[in-house]
Amino acid sequence: MAAAGSVGQRADVNGLSVYYELHGEGLPLVLLSGATCTIERPGMEIPFFASEFQVIAIEQMGHGRTSDAIDREFHYHDMAEDVVELLRQLGVATAFVFGFSDGGIVGLDMAMNHPELVAKLVVSGANFRLDGYSGNTLEWLTTVKPEDWPASFRKDYERLSPDGPGHWPLVLQRIQRMWVDEPSYSDEQMASITSPTLVIAGDRDVITAEHSVAMFRAIPKAQLCIVPNEGHGAMAKETVMTFLKQIPGPAD
Predict the structure, then answer these.
(1) Rounded CA gap, 104 and 97, in Å?
(2) CA–CA separation, 225 vs 200, rounded Å?
(3) Strand duo 118-124 + 28-32: pairing
(4) Judging by beta carbons within 10 Å of its beta carbon (0-12, 13-18, 19+), is residue 213 exposed, middle or buried?
(5) Overall number of domains in the chain
């Protein structure tokens, strides 16, 4: 594995030059940010988790400092396989995984297809089917114009993307094409997840509380945390830390 304390790194992963950072020492904890987000977002809480773990924070294709690859469509499974390949290159055989929103969906896919790799899984504000969104959220996500996307995310993209500010409309439109059809995991696929899993949602999340409960009930070793007065991508960092450090009991 790369030396602890090294920060910005790049790796050739499935045709991408993936940007990632390593922080802290200890057991590996993979942090996966949400759609259009960079790992620099304060809600990632990298310093907090790096006090106990070696954090591996990854920027997916078309996010942050990782270029878009216009000859490749966006799919959650492909993004999950990119993470798996990066961890293979880093010599990580098993890790904790914590994903926000789209990053949580990537984590679910990893746990389904690489159970030996995901020691524990935390997802916040993630859905496993399109019917998990509240109200008209899905319609907004798939039709919003690039100039109407939240300004702070657009500014991060313009500041960091190697593709330049002019690529922003194209990358958002490409991600929107994924959101029309994905995620679409079955109850059987969710039930195949063997990793102990913590499902987090804010009580004002764009993912309905009912859907978060359905995810909690579908995953055999799941725990549920609904955070009061919080919206999308709730952190509950102390609860997450307790969950990750908890030693599994004989029944787990």
Answers:
(1) 9
(2) 5
(3) unpaired
(4) middle
(5) 1
List 56's β-bridge partners, or say none: 22, 30
Q: Which residue has the tokens 């998990």?
A: 132
Q: Supply the CATH number for residue 20's domain.
A: 3.40.50.1820
Query: Would you say the pTM of this structure is higher than 0.90?
Result: yes
Chain centroid to CA 2: how far? 22
**Residue 96: domain span:** 8-245
Q: What is the pLDDT of residues 127-170, one digit of tens each?
A: 999 999 999 999 999 999 999 999 999 999 999 999 999 999 99
Q: Are 148 and 225 contacting, i.e. CB atoms less than 8 angstroms apart?
A: no
- DSSP H or E stretch at residue 92: none
- Evaluate whether residue 3 is within a structural domain: no
pLDDT digit string, tens, across residues 166-210 = 999 999 999 999 999 999 999 999 999 999 999 999 999 999 999
| Gap between the Cα atoms of 226 and 56, Å rounded | 26
- Contact partners, residue 232, CB within 8 Å, separation at least 6: 101, 125, 202, 205, 206, 207
